Amino acid sequence: MLRNGKNKPKISIIVPVYNVEQYLEECLHSLIQQTLIEIEIICVDDCSSDNSGNIIDSYAIKDPRIKPIHLKKNCGTSCARKNGVMQAQGSYIMFCDADDMYKSNACQRIWEEMSANPVDILQFGTDVRYEKTYTNLEKQNLKNVLKPYCKQYSGDLCKACFKDKNWSFTLWNKAYNSAVCKKAFLEIDDEYIVVAEDLYAFFYISFYASRYRGIDDKLYIYNFGIGITNNERFSLKQFQKQCTRLDVVHGLNAFSEKRLGQNQKGIIQGINNSIIDDAIYQWYHCLSISDAKEGYDLLIEKLGISTVISNMAKQYWDKSEELLSRLTARDREIPIGKKAKNIGVYYHRMRNGGVEKVLSKLLFVWRELGYNIVLFTDEEATSDDYEVPENLPRIILPKYTNSQGEKYKKRANYWESMIKKHEIDTMLYHSCTCCVLLWDVCLIKGLRCNLVIETHSMFCGSMWYDIKFSSYLPRIYRMVDRVVSLSQIDVEFWKNYAPTYFIPNPIDCISRKNISNNYNSQNIIWVGRLAEEKNPYAILEAFSIVHNELPSATLTIVGDNDDPSWMRGLQERANHLNIEQNVEFCGYELEIGEYYQMASIFAMTSLSESFSMVLAESKEYGLPAVMFELPNLELTRDNRGIIVVPQGDVLALADGIIKLLKDDSLRKQMGEEARESLENFMSFDIKKAWKNLLDTFGTSIDYNLNKNLTLMLDMLFENISRGAKRLEVDTPNCEVTNVNKYEEILKRHEEVINRHNESINHQWEIQKWHEERIKRLESERSVFVKCKSKLIKLLKNHNA
């Protein structure tokens, strides 16, 4: 009889124990009352700090079938089970959690079933006792998870469980062939794992097992709602325990590389994805905001930055603002960083735009300073690209437009591999408002790179097209190391979020050779990328007014957009305004000097700019400018050579152009002023400024915030965000629908056209009213003169 410890046990029950004194006695009582006597109960005390160890020892004195194992340090549930399994002597092995119980006939039924029809895994039913209040749906879901697959199955048990979902991986509602179980537990790493330990063990058991069977008998009593996995809110310490599941990912990956075929590797990948998704879900939903940054660092430590960011992008792409509340705080420290040597430079392309043109010049500057430069873009090099230094390494990333949500993973992995391959220590990031900014910033900083963002748009430039994005954009900048701005106004704003430096664009690169102007020309030039923020429709509206006054005037538009509907829409508008014969659409041109030389006036209609290279170029060519007001531009501060009109005032823009076209001497005078006003910018030492900035890495810097101003800005943007959200709630009928890109652009075109038409029509209505009033007055005057003449004549006749 086994009570005296002389016979081999039929079943070994493994009970991992850690700080469960309030449940343990009830559990042990259910085990020693089993109707099958020939069992052993191996209780593994995982270095409990409560009375659990003493309870085990007291029960062992009363019943020699209880075999205590006292671990000298806390090793976790997985390790505790492994210790028990390795010492088990029974033909079959079962598991019982210390806060659960067995029905009194459980072991007897298992032995009978295994004797009649032995299998490697025998699953039985579970009697669930709910310790908290749950919905009927939650209860039904749990019931489905715990339900046995009441058939016999032979073959690939891993696939049947983890892919086909025929049964669940819960460890404690099954009995196992002892030899299979021991072989499986030998594969388990001795890591501290207290979450997903069932999954970890059952995968290996399924791998080595070949036969499964299920029975309906409810033999296990599960107290649902007691354990660690059922908490809705976690402290940092509890979350750290939750993250032990991520060691399961590493263990399965290592096993996959050395032992498994492609199909089984796919199963492991699916398991790992589920584990990682759960960990990130708990970080986002269960961990407090005050602990979130430490939890985020723990995830990176366990998984690596690209895995963490990829999975966050998959689950929370549209939750950027909420993520930032968990990643950033108002008070920030400026890390010393690495000494800059190997510099990566990112912008999505090198053609058809002002940023691209500037970047092509800066690449030469940075190389001349002695840095190793690697260019990162989303596009392959084309014949339209601006010039770059010879033998410049160029890395083509997955396009940001195709890297949203779960698709960001490919971009993240490539970023990481290329940064490591080229040993990049500093990244100069020039796509300052793109949709992947948050994710790229998190990734680059997670790889321990210095990160500098150059703001090629004004600080509030994105507000007019995406107010929600603009409301949290400054908090993204709070994560970067340095910011470079192109105006003093932008410096004043961004320095509230990161150390910010004023470095204007390198306009000393503008060629001064053979520059001459045809001031007798009646040609107006507009230069820029065809895009909403450049507002090209406005110049067509203004030119139609100019054309009515001066039919010989011409307009040259230099620029294009990747989407042909922009050019098509502008050409159609020119036709509608009957100015197509006087407007030349030149498309994108690498060299545009000849177009400046053929013009006598430069027109600019941008809604926002941060520097405007085309304005600088027009000044160097001696062209007076007529433009919508952009008060933040350094190039417009002295107003020399410029006629500035209010934003959107098309009539004033046209009047300014007409005024210059009608006055040759004024046009020439303002052109000379424009060229002279550029001299101050020509003397700025771009190379020295960049050297000084990059030298700040590797050493500490002074960074003093005006805390009141920063707090004011934070509160402003937070409440703008709240207002935007409230507006969405208050206008539920204004649903945002997904339209294709072409339709969206046409819609934007129509909005711009209608806006300008309304302005023009209003002005014409006022002018028409004045003209009609003048005509009426003249008519009345004519009648009055006639009446007066007749009256005088009558008086003369009467007097006679």
- Compute the number of helices: 29
Helix content: 40-55%
Instruction: Write the CATH homologous superfamily of the largest domain.
Output: Glycogen Phosphorylase B
Shape annotation: elongated
- Main sheet makeup: 9 strands, mixed
Percent range for β-strand residues? 5-15%
CATH fold naming of the largest domain: Rossmann fold
Task: Please report the first level of CATH classification, the CATH class of the largest domain.
Answer: Alpha Beta
Kindly provide the radius of gyration, computed on alpha-carbon positions and rounded to a whole number of angstroms. 38 Å
Arithmetic mean of pLDDT: 89
State the CATH architecture of the largest domain.
3-Layer(aba) Sandwich
Question: What is the CA–CA distance across the termini?
Answer: 161 Å
Instruction: Classify the secondary structure makeup into a structural class.
Output: alpha/beta
Query: In total, how many domains does the architecture comprise?
Result: 4
**Regions with little confidence, pLDDT below 50 for 5+ residues:** 734-743
Number of strands: 22
